Structures are given as structure tokens and as C-alpha cells.
Amino acid sequence: MAESPKFTVVGVSERKVDGRALVTGKPVFAGDVELPGMLHVALLTSPVAHARIRSIDTAAAEAHPGVACVLTHHNTPAMRYTTAGQGAPEPSPYDTRMFDTKVRFVGDRVAAVAADTLSAAREAAALIAIDFEELTPVLSIDAALATGAPVIHDEDDCLDVWDAPHNVVSVIGAKVGDVAAGLAESAVTAETTIETQYAQHAPLEPHVVLSHLDPDGRLVILASTQVPFHVRRIVARLLDLPIHRVRVIKPRLGGGFGVKQEVLLEDVAALVTLRTGRPARLEYTREQEFVSARTRHPMRIRVRLGAGADGMLQAIGMDAISNTGAYGAHGLTVLSNTGSKTLPLYNKAPHLAFDGRVVYTTLPVAGAYRGYGGTQGSFALETAMDDLAERLGIDPVELRLRNHIRTGETSPIFEELGEGRKGTPQVITSCALEECLRRGAERFGWAERRARTPGAGALRRGVGMSAHMQGSGIALVDMASATISMNDDGSFTLFTGSTDLGTGSDTVLAQIAAEVLGVGVEAIVVVAADTDLTPFDTGAYASSTTYVSGKAVELAAMRVRDQILAVAGRILESDPTGLGIVEGHIEGPQRSVSLADIGKRSYYGPDPAQIAATASFVPESSPPPFMAAFAEVEVDVETGLIRVTDFLAAVDCGTPINPIMTEGQVEGAIANGIGYALTEEMQFTVRGRNRNPDLARYKIPGAVDLPPMTVMLIDSYEPTGPMGAKSVAEIGINGPLPAIANAVYHAVGIRLTRPPFTPEKVWRRLREAGV
Amino acid sequence: MDITLPRDLEAALAAAAAAPDATILAGGTDLMVGVNYHGVRPSAVVAIRRVAELQEWEDRFIGAGVTYRRLEAGPIPGLAQAARTVGSPQIRSAGTIGGNLGTASPAGDTLPFLAAVDASVVLRSTAGERVLRWDEFITGPKRNARGPGELIIGVRFPDRLPRRQAFAKIGVRSAMVIAIASCCVTRDEDGTTRVALGSVGPTPIRARRAEEMISAESRPTEATLTEFSRLVADEVRPITDHRSTAEYRRYASGVMARRLLERVLS
Ligand SMILES: Cc1cc2nc3c(=O)[nH]c(=O)nc-3n(C[C@H](O)[C@H](O)[C@H](O)COP(=O)(O)OP(=O)(O)OC[C@H]3O[C@@H](n4cnc5c(N)ncnc54)[C@H](O)[C@@H]3O)c2cc1C
Predict the structure, then answer these.
(1) Which stretches of chain A sit within 8 Å of chain B by CB?
(2) Could you tell me the pTM of the whole model?
(3) Which domains does chain A have, with CATH numbers?
(4) pLDDT tier at B172 (50, 70, 90 boundaries)?
(5) Mean pLDDT of all residues in chain A?
(6) Does B57 contact A at CB distance below 8 Å?
(7) How many angstroms separate the CA atoms of A755 and A746, rounded?
(8) In angstroms, what is the span from residue B40 Cα to ligand 1's centroid?
(9) What are the C-alpha distances in Å from B140 to residues A393, B110, B153?
(10) Domains, chain B, ordered by start
(11) B57-58 and B120-125 beta bridge pairing
(12) Whose alpha carbon is nearest atom 40 of ligand 1?
């Protein structure tokens, strides 16, 4: 491990740069903004899961008082696109139309109405008469793959769908060695099949956009988005505008978790503005956020493992089928990550295979969601590892220690499985998973708790664990850039295209710039995510901001520092290479000069010249953060109620730029993961209608539901990252599901494979098992 | 919409008499859900939050306007335990026992206790007062015997409350959860035991056969406890809905009742 240098601003739990405005309720969100003459847009969505629109009559809606514009498939662009906010060309099929002649899930867009008030828009939307020719809904993976299944995408103009007549969006395969032979040669094998549920991100702030025309007639979109530049590109194409005629601004965001890596409302509001010349606001209700936004791909995954008697893995086979719902946004890439964010973890196995298929159903559309397929894959792999450990008679922690990847090592999977295509070879440049496992186990009291008997009463205790990796950005795909310019008081303005969605990344980037420039965070003004002002950044997804955008900021700051030192060298009559900035000053051999002096001079002379630099960064690898997760549960064998009584995560994310926010990311992700494991599930009727589209019935854990959580940030230094940092936003969510399931097995001897583990479900499994 | 904000009981009764179809608004935690989500559009509203007489709590009488917050901190253990499981702190600060009765949901968390102790509901209108036993008042799921122009004044308990009381509910998470099944068990020094359950029938259900059997046992054995649990499970009348199946509710009722019994016995 490289020796980590000493920092002064990085590694400090600085306050969030936007914290004060947020906690004092300043109008910082897109939904807070009102513009004169603003229209309100209401969406009319499909009440049925699968139907062709025979006719649609908007006359009454158009005649309704206050209505300015009604959009349907009759008067909107017919071209196909993907709502996935990914780099161009997007690795998602072009299977979506702004408004289609067919609806493919309950909640699919049918029409939009813009009116002076929201109530007028809603009333008018209710006046639209639609004649649906209902088709058979397709409500499960099995139904989608059945022979003679209804064809969900039977249009002839969709692009990049693998086998539309059979509802197969994509297939993915990766193969190293021969898994069948490897399993046959193994002394011990284990096999697990899991099936996960539909889950929703439920950000506090639902999607909201406000569009208007600026005085020059350019389209300006204020959007709650994780991907402003992709929004600009996709909306420009859809609405046939030159890219430079569109400006996208991201204000503060109330969370995203992936659901805002998707262009869901911007095109509609923008088109209303173009048609009417008036500002237009469109906002999902909470119900629409559940029904019409995006969700986590439900998956069925089978994992087969083979190992020698010494516990060394010989073969790992993973077969996965993913349900992408009605449209294929992120279908291929999420499933790729199911393999690529799990299989390299145990790189000692010579035989590896991943086989995946993505299928359409007429259920809500899945998309990017924290963990991005790795969460589902991890659950399958880590419960299979638990089973294997038992069959081998080896402690689960020890089994991971024997097999996990180390610094300087690689896995063929990095090259075999990329983002829906081949990946890039990658050597691990930092890995403290061994310390995570050892120190995590010690702090958790693993050995002692594991040795305890679960008890014989109604309440049985058990402990379980799991190991994880994620990534930091997308190698050779992501690009981030940053511009830093110096002000005449010696402060700096950082222009970054990256997107802080509530994570605190603006603060983290300011800390990185401040560290390089020898100033405090307060001397950095952050201007972020405005396509007119800030240089390009692919956006906030794939755990990329700290690592990719952070590196761009570090590089830009280093260039600015060099420019400052060159000026300082002239002033101090000293060789700049020997100079450095400390607390806003550059110390020469005789005297010192302040940044304020240099800033003033850069504006007003002598020899004025703007001190500024731009840098871009394209990562050549995606260094994984690692985590060991430990859970203790108490299972009530009479009622089936599982209580998580303790949770510990030991995380290697390289240098934590801001420790308290890093811990916050992990804690939030664990809470998110506990909900996914125990209570969260979108439920559907036999006709495909969501039965619990609100926060009363879709059960997210509250503070009282959560166990005590311990987050240990384990020292490591990633040499390719900014100041040794990797990412941390996603990995935490992967832990709870397998760690809890493994703990339940330890407590009561049943393997839970179908989350969420609700009391009744667990009670049934316990009864079947005769506990 | 016509809204009246009476400041005392007399004015409240007058307002209710003047508009017998008016909707009574207490904490609003049920009513506003109806307004916001289920298209409830009252023609007239009588808001009773400021009526001091309804906030009274005198020994065996609890005014309809008493909130969960106060019940939680109060001296009646079964009711305090039930109140503690309701919603969130915000809901508990606003929601009232009168509202729980007014709604008469099978999942109302105070109702099993009221059923277990045979509480009465005091109703009043300008025409006079009526006192109905809990099972005369609650007539079905979300149905009650309140007449036009009547206000729920409060609940009245028998002179003596059983010394030992225990309440529990089962749901999929700890906070903000509607019960899959709830149960209240009380036991007196002479062994008299009462068992009432919620969410497992159209109204709160008393498991009378189980009560009778266990009341006669001074020191129940393992076998009697098991039999007690079986009888309770036998007497409930649960349905299957999106929260749970009838089968699980039935089983869970037996388990919960037995655990609560063990608590009141210890
Ligand atoms: C988020 C949330 C969580 C909840 N969790 C729970 C829970 O865990 N357990 C539970 O039991 N309930 C729960 N509830 C339901 C609700 O809080 C309770 O039923 C509460 O007791 C209602 O009281 P209120 O004062 O708010 O009634 P209101 O909403 O004001 O009134 C309810 C009904 O009773 C009538 N009414 C009220 N007072 C009188 C009166 N004095 N005379 C005549 N009629 C009257 C009203 O007209 C109305 O029909 C929850 C509600 C919400 C919104």
C-alpha cells in the first residue's frame, strides 16, 4: 500500500457547502421556482398494463378553461429513443416514444395537458377519452419467456433489441475456463437460486422540471436530474433542436439514488414551452414516482460454486434473468454489472461463467438504482458462499479471506464483462478487504457471537456476514472536466459539470480543490451542473463523482497552482519549483506573497492575466471500493418477525475526503439495504396495477426500525484517485440482504432467497422447515 | 364548506345540532387522509380541538379529545402501551381516542383495550346523553352507532380496572404501521382474564371461550397455555388482504395472546 500523504482540508469533516441554505429552507429546489405565466403540466398515464390505443379524443380537454396545450402521440415526435441518461451512444435500446400508440404498463405515458393551474390541467386530463384495445398483460419473467407470450415490443422501428418477438431485450455471456468441468472436479459444491422483488428509490423529492425560453429564445430546463448533459443531448435530439439551443441547469436535489439518471419529464415540459412560449412545470406526484418513474430490476439468479477441500474456489457460475419492465432502459448494463461487480471479488477461481438475459414485461420500468445490479448479484453470490462455507466446515470470514482479490491482482472478468460490451483489463491498485474482514470481524465480535447457540425459545439470535466490491466510475467511458479560475481576492471559482444530488459531492470537490490550492473550503465557490457555464461531466452515476470528477478537479487545481507559483516566482524572484501554497501564502526565500495579492495582480497588473485552467479526466480503470458486512438478527420463530439487532460495515473506499459524509453515505445505504431486505416491495394486482404506490404502504424503514450501525472506514490509498480516494455511494446497499439472510440461516437454519423477508413469509418458511 | 370552531361543549353540541350531517374534525389524522386521498368532501365541518370539556381525563373517564401523546404518558398501562404503537410522534400528538372510535377501523389500536375492559362510549347531543357499551357502539368495520348531531364525549371504564394489562401488535416494521393483528390481555387478582383482538375481525373480537378457560386456571401449565393459544386462534375471524393472509393472522393471534398472557401472569 502506498504511503498516504498528509492533508489539511481533505480528510476533514467539513460542513456541506450547501448545508446552511438547505436547513434554513431556502428555495433551492426546482419545485421552489415560479415564473410569470407559468403553465402546470399534468400527465395522463395508462390505467391498463398492455393495450393499443385505438383512438384518443382530446377535444373536451382542449376546450377546458385554462388549457394551453395537449400532447399525445398525434402531435409529438415519433422517433424512438431511450430514457436512460447514459453517454452517447447509449447502451440501452431505442424502444421508447415520447407518446406511443401502445401502452406497456400501468403508468405509461398517454398524454400531457398544460394549463394555467394544476387543477385545471388535471381536470382537463380526466376529460381525454381513450379507446384502448386491451392486450394480455405479461407480469413475470416466466410469462415473458413462455412460448406464445404476447409480444410487448412489436413495433418495427425499435433499435438494439436482441429478440423483440420473444421479449428478450439483451443477452450477455462471459466465459473463462470450463465451469462444468470445474464443478465436477470440486470436492465441495453449493448452489443457490434467489429471486428479488420490485423496489423503488423513493427520493424525498420526486422528479420535477421547469422549462422556459430565455430572452434569446433558447430553451432553459431546470431539472432534478443526475445527468444534465445527457438531458441536454437527448432532449435536443427528440425536439429537433441544435444542442446549443438548450440549456440544462441542475439546482439542489432531494436525492436520486439512480432514479434521476433518466430523462422522464424534461422532454414534455420542454415541448410545452416550445409550443406555447410559456414556462412549464411538470412534477411527479408521489404516486407517479412509484408508478411511472423507475425501479430496481427484479432478478432471478442462480449461482453455482465449486471448491477444493482447502476452500479454494474452483468454479463460479452465475445465470441471471433480469426483468426490465416495459422498456429496456439500463437493462443491459445493469445485468452486466450483476456479474462484473461480483465475480472479480473471488479471482482465485480458474473457471468462471456468466450468462444473462434481460426480458420485457408489462410492469414498471426498471432503471439505475444504487448498486446497479451488483446488489442482486451480491445477494446470490454471498448466500451461496455462506452455504459453501458450511459445507466445507470453514468459517465464512475465513473462506472469503482465502479467496478474495488482492492489490496487484486482476480478474479476467474485468476484460470479459464491461458496460454491455467487453470491458477493460484492470489490475487492482488498492484493496484493504483483508483488513475490512479481519478488523470488522474483531470489532463485531464475530467469533464469539458466531459460537453462541441461537437459543431454543421463540427468539433466536444469529450472525451472518458478506463481502462486497463495487466500482468507481466507468473505465474509458466516463469523462469529467473542471475549470478553476482565480478571483481578485485570492479565492477561486470551481466550475464543475458534476451533479451533487444531495450526496455532498460539491463539498467534496471543493475540499479537493482547496487542498491543492492551499486554502480553506470557504475560499472555493462551487458553480456546478449548468450546461451553459460548466464543462462537461457524464453525470452522477456509477459511483463516479469523487473518483472521476474529483480527479478532474485535482488536475485543474494543480494547473492553476502552477500558474500561481509561476507568478509568485516572478514576484519573489525565486524558482517556482521550490515554492508551495500554504494557508493562502507563498513563502519565498526572503518574503512571502499572499494569494490575495496574486489575485489582484492577475486582474489589474502589473502584467494582468486571468489565472484559470481546465482539466479533463477519463479513468483507465474503475477501482473497486470493498466492504465486509456483519449483521446480527433476532428471529421470532413464532411470528416470523426478523429484527436486525446490530450491523457493522468495514469499508475500504480509499481516502475518505470528508469522513462524516462518507460514513453518512454508508449508513444511508445500509438503511436502504435493510428496507430492501425486510420490508420494501412494490406489489401488483393480477392486472399489473401497483397496489402500494405511497409511503404508507410501501414500507421504508424509519429510524426506530434501524439497528445500531457501526461504520469503520479502513485505511487505504488508491494511487489513481484524487488524493487516494475511491467511491463510496453504492457499495453499502449490497451488504444487508446477504448478511441478514446468512444471519437468519445461522439463527434458525433456513435459507431465505426471496426478499423482502416479511414476517408472514418467514413464518411460512419456518413452518415448512418444521422449526 | 362551512367550518365551525366551537370553544366549549355547549357550542359544539349546538353546531352539531344545527348541521346534523356535519363532519366532526378532531386531530384530523383519519379525516384528512380521506380528504386528500379518497375524495372525502364534507359539506360542513365542526372542529372540536378547542373544546376544553373533551380534553378532560378524570380517573375512569377519558375525554374524546385526549391524544395518544397523553395516553402514552397516562396511568393505564394497556392503553399507554397501545398508544405508544400508534403512527409516529406527529400522529400521536394530533390523533385522539375519540377519533379512533369515530373511525372504528378494525385496526384501531385503542379498541382492543376498550373491548377487554368493557368500556362504554358516552355520546351526547342537544337532545341528551346516551351511553353505549363498546360492542353496541362499534357495529361493523368502520361503522358505529353515532347518531346525527351526536358527539362522542369520551369513554367510561368500569369502576375497577384489572390490575395486569398488556397490549401488542404485529406489523412489518416498527414505526407507522397498521396492525396485521393486535391484542390486549388483562388479568385480575381473582384470575379473571380478558382477551380482545384487533385487525382479525370486522370489529374488535373478544375470545370468550379462551377467557373462560384461562380464568379458571390459577397456575396455567404448558398444556393449558397451548390450549389457550389454540382457542384464541379459533375464535378470531380474520380475512385475507394486502397486509396478510387470514391464516397468518389467525396463527399470530394465538401466539400474541399467549405471550401477553404470560406477561400478565408473571
Ligand atoms: C400516518 C398515520 C398513521 C396512523 N397510525 C395508526 C396506528 O398505528 N394505529 C391506529 O389505531 N390508528 C392509526 N392512524 C389512524 C388515526 O391516527 C387514528 O384513528 C386516530 O385515533 C384518529 O383520531 P383523530 O383525532 O385524528 O380523528 P379525526 O381524523 O379527526 O376523525 C376521525 C373520525 O372520527 C370522527 N370523530 C372524531 N372525533 C369525534 C367526536 N368527538 N365525536 C364524533 N365523531 C368524531 C370524525 O368525524 C372522523 O370520522 C394513523 C393515521 C395516519 C395518518
Answers:
(1) 458, 638-639, 641, 678-679, 683, 691-692, 694, 696-697, 699, 701-705, 758-760, 763-764
(2) 0.95
(3) 19-26+479-617 (3.30.365.10), 46-135+207-283 (3.90.1170.50), 295-474+621-768 (3.30.365.10)
(4) confident
(5) 97
(6) no
(7) 17
(8) 14
(9) 58, 16, 20
(10) 164-265 (3.30.390.50)
(11) unpaired
(12) B152
